Amino acid sequence: MERIILHCDLNNFYASVECLYNPALKSVPMAVGGNEESRHGIILAKNSLAKAAGVKTAETIWQAKRKCPNLVIVPPRHSLYHEISEQVREIYKRYTDRIEAFGIDENWLDVTGSTLLFGTGEKIAYEIKERIKNEIGITASVGVSFNKIFAKLGSDMKKPDAVTVITKENFKEKVWSLSVENLLYIGKASVEQLNKIGIFTIGELAAAPASVLYSHFGKWGQDMWYYANGLDNSPVASIEDKEQLKSVGNSITTAQDLANNEDVKIVLYELAESVGWRLRQHGLKGKTIQITIKDSTLKSIERQVTLSDYTDVTAEIAHWAYKIFLKEWNWNKKVRLLGIRVTNFAGDECEQLTLFQDKKHDKQRKLDKCLDNIRSKYGEDAVQRALFINHKIDI
Is 273 annotated in the active site? Predict the structure, then answer.
C-alpha cells in the first residue's frame, strides 16, 4: 500500500502566536526578535506585512529596520510557543499516532492507516488545516505526498494556509523544475558544488549519472539522487518513540565580554541550573562534564572531566565546570561565550549504588528536586541562589 505522508508547517509561527495574543500587531509590520543590545538581535519570525517590506528571518534587527523603519519588535516567549505547539499536536493525534517533529512548528504525519476512517490524504490535510485555524487561531500549510521529502517540499510550495499534493504521477512536473536548494537537507555548500558540475534543478539532479554524484559527494551523492527521484523511504516516527539523548547542554553569549573569574562563575552556575534541571526531567545522570569557552576573537576551546560517579546535581555540575575553567583559562583574552554539556549517561534504573553514599550529594540532590517543584509551581525566579543575588551580571 502506498504511503500517505503529511508535512504540517505552522505559518510564521512565533509571529502568528504573538498576533493571536495581541491582535493590534496584525495591522502593523512586526517581528519576533532577540535583544538587539545583547548580540541576540536577529529576526526569528515576521508577519506578512513585515515580509512584504522585505524583512527576512535570521537577518539582524538593524538590517530589518533599514528596510522597514516602523517595524515593531516583540521579544520571544518560548514557553508560550511550546504550549501552542502541544495544542496543535493534540489535533494531529486525532488522526494518527505516527507523528514526528521537525522543529517546534513542523511535523510529519503518516496517515496511511487513517484513510478508511477520514478519507484521502488531501481531505485529511484540509481538515487538519481548518481545525488548527478554528481551534487554535493560527494557520498552517500542509504538504501531502508519498514520502517525507516531497511532503516537506509540498508544504513549502504554497503559503500561507494552503494544501499542496505531490503524487507519484505528478512529482516530475511539480518538482523537477525547482532549484536543488528547495530539496530538504541540501545546504548551501552542496548547492554550490552541484552548480559547479552543471546541476541546478532537482530534475537535473535526478538525471545525473550516479558515478558522477558519487565521485563528488560519496554516499551523500547517492542520497541526493534518491531524494530527487522520490525514492525516500524513511519512516515517520511514532509519538511513542523517544530519541535517546546522548548529551544535555546549554550555552550563552553574554551581553558584555566577561573579564574576571567571579563573572564566569555566575554564568556557569546559571547554565548548570538549566542543565541540571533538564537532566532530572529526563531521569538522567552523567559522568562527563564538558565546558566550551569562546573568547572575544571568536576562537573557542572545549575541555572536559570524567567523574568517578554519575551526577545530576546542579552544584556539582557547576563546581566541576568552574574547576575546569580555572585550570584551562589564562585570561589573555576576555570571554564571549560559555557552555556546559553533560554526557556519558546512566539512568536512575541502572545507576550502581555503593555502600558509602556521599551524604552531601544525596542532600544536594533532594534539595534540587525540591527547588524543581517550587519553580515548576511558582516560576523560575521563585527561589534563587544567594550567589546570584549578591553578584548580578547581565547575561
Answer: no
